[in-house]
Amino acid sequence: MPDTQPVPGSLALILVGLDRWRFITHSTDDGAISHTAESGEGTVVHCGVLSAEQMAGFRAALSGALAKAAQRKGDERSAAGGGQGHQKTPAMVRALVLQALDQLEADEEDEVPARQPQGGFTDVGLHTGGAPRDTAWPLVREAIRATLGHVSTCRSPSPDLFQLAEAHLHLWLLQRQVPLVVNGSATSTALNAAMQMTAAVASVGGELAVQAHDVAHVEAACRAARLALEGARAARVQAAASDAQLPALAGPDSPCGPGSYRLPRGVLPPLAGPQAEGGGLEEAIEREGRNLGSLLLPPERPPGQLPFADLLAALSAARQHQGSVVAQHALCMVEREMFQRAVQGFGAKARLPETEVDSLVEVVNAYLLALHTFQGGGASEPRMQADLRSRGVLVVWVALCMVHAAAAHAHPLLQQYGVGVNWADLRHLALSDRTALAAMPYVDLLDESDELLRHIYQLIYAVGAHTELPSQQARARACQALLHVLSREAHGSGPIGNLLARQGVAVPSGPGGKPGAYRGVRLLPGEALERAAPELRQLLAEAVLAQPPHAMRWMAGHPQQELLLCCITDTALDASAALDALPGGLSEGERADVLALRGLLACGVLQHCLQMRHLVDYGVNDNVGARKRLAVPYRAAHLPSERSEYAQPDSALTLTTLAYYQRGLSRKELLDALLKLLGLGQNAQQAHFAEWLALAAPDVAAGRASQAQWAREPMPLASCQELATVDQASKLDTTNASQVDLLHRLFSHNMAAVDFWLNVCVFPEETRQFPHRLVATSWNLADNPHHCHAIPRAFHPAVAAAPPATAAAGTNDNHRLLPLQVRQHLDVEPRLRATNGKMLAVLLANPRYHTIATQQGQAVWEALLQLAVREGMDALVDCGALLAGTSNRAAADYLLQLLDRRRFSGVCYFDEAEREWVVADPQGRRQPRASSPIREAQCLTLFDEARCRGADLQLRHGAVGLLTLGPATTKDKLMQSAGRLRKLGKGQTLQTVGTADVTAKIARVAGMADDAAITSLHVLQWAMANTVAATQRGVL
Asked: What residue spans carry the region label Disordered (predicted)?
């Protein structure tokens, strides 16, 4: 291909990959183009990477830009009046190219490392032949130079320049593909791809020739490539034809000769002898159209349809000649016949006759069997195997459409490609279409089905245009008002503090020690809480009415406070009627405040949220790429369910507020809040910032954080002198890095600062709702009647007798909550009936129980790890998520400081960042478990909550495990966690441990004194009580 250097007045376009190249280009005074390479080698004009979907848009945008440039004459300026603007120089033309590129949307998935194309061209661009992104069209790595035109001779940039560059690119690839095929080093599939590439280049060359471009070299190159490829194909066909005789299934006028049809993408019989020279470009294009080797129908095909009996006979012969040309030809014939019938049936509305349906199903069954035989007989190339699988899917899909009188579903696909289907391209469309995959017989296999089919999960798709959440501000301030009261009163000597101090009602919760931080409680589910809940709701409502926040100040001293209190706390009262009867009534905002408090207190939303554990049941998703800033459910400790969210808006608002109270604001989040604050008016700035200072100042003055707590913090607590430097909003400077650091230490956990950030930056954007939603539950997942029910028999006999779904689970405690379609089949293996009794016996044989005792300021996870080391444990199975508050890696580092190195060589744990099991040794080295010289039998192993189901590690024969218990651990979760010790009861032993509140619950269920010795029998009684309660909640 000619390599034209840029000359004054011309433009050279070089396409390169973004991952290796970046260049700067400009024009000199004399109009020449100079290049400066920032990286890599060579001098090129950087124009970026185009995907297949972008090509049409780029061509249109570039053509429009160049057409506008062509309207100017000589050195005319682009601006009116000849003032500012760019002259018609190469730099200006390059700017137009970049402008056209900028009009396309960025697609990060297309910017992948380029690879050498191996396939042909489709109607949308380069086909890379089986790559993970087959139609992404990442261009080859090396620079591809192409002359875009002679602007100096044309006097203006031509809109056809890009098309000419595209032809050069195609030709460049073709010239590298042909030698591989001719020399015999490429597959027959590549031969057909090269033929298609030749036709594509010839077609583009014909279009350019019509527009008076000199494309003689393109035509000559296409003719030479065509001759070489036809010769190579003829040689291959001659060698393959000697192995088998094709059956006589076609008329004598077939272009392939008597008794043969075309073969798809494989060994192809020659259509006609190659023409050495001449014929012209139009005849060459027509000949190439006939030679596209992908299931084209001969124009001389006799009218009518082949009987199904002939198809069955051909398929029978195919099974006897597995892997041969005969078998491939028979498969091709059935495929062509199915598509031909579908094309003829586009306008049909009625279903096929029952007898024809039976025959059709029989043919499809025979086809699938022959296809399977052919795959095992000789089609060993991966690309050929992929093509065969795709063809099988398509035949079944088309047959299903015909049976259901829905052949029109295939119309867009067949209309685009015609009956001459290019399988390499059609495969991507078919396999990305759920309809095509659903057309195949299948059986659903569900592992850990009790978890997959859990009733609490829903799959929801939003429908419609999103709108703002009604009364969003009122809901948020009501939630924050109640949590401020709880933080202020929970640990005091007032009525609320005394109530929460009762045994079994609540435990302290909050970050602790931070200025202005949340110092609330976590409510403990149980009888004690149920008895205290009505009084707690009453006390919280009275406290809010007595000292409401500024936005709800209208409540203070309201003459109908008793009625308001009843509306907020009493579900039996008709709140709407009562509020309507108030003298003078309430405004819309005041009414929203009352109803928001009612939802949180009377309807139990606040009580429900306060029972959940931060970073175990809920939390903020801080993973890279997280899309929402609201709190999300957690599947296990430190394992957010990234695609889930809370459907109930008040729960979402409350849990989000609690999550940020516990987590605090990052430096960036606080900076965003400060910028929003400084964007308000001066009075509003001072009012909001005064609330921040009112919460922070007492803690800073008292030095409330203990040294033990702050020893783990990266920065010390701020002093009163530092606080004085930022005690007014006018002193805030977000450009001062040291001051921002100080503000972060002061206000990262400040409840008022968190409230402001949530109300201004998060809730308005994240709480939008949709008018409708589509919901799927575990019932939909299990409801899988065989998709071929409308056909008398399944397409594959082996699937006909199989159930629509088969599931497996290690426990059956939740079988009463499973969808009604699910049936237990313990009769499959009678020994399964003894599973529950065996596990219970094993646990009863391991009676020892511990209670974690924490010191002042000590975290629960630290006390737990110290206990595990002190008791000589080999494994810690965190069923109760007591390691919440630290990462697995931090826990492993803490253990390495305590380990007895004479016994343990390291710690084995699951690294969340690396997403694999890791072994850490005392020297600080971390290696993947599979490549580490230290085996897990030599380590103290951590099973975090997420790995308490399904994880399988080889612990030593006499290993001792420590299993933690959570506030509501059920029997199935307890059994699954105990199963991490694979030889439990056969040399391995287990001990259990719980916090003080869990110990008290176990004692109450067992009817024992609080200081009585607890064994595994009492633990099982308590776990069974939790299971019964969970089942009741699920049923009701």
From this structure: 110-129
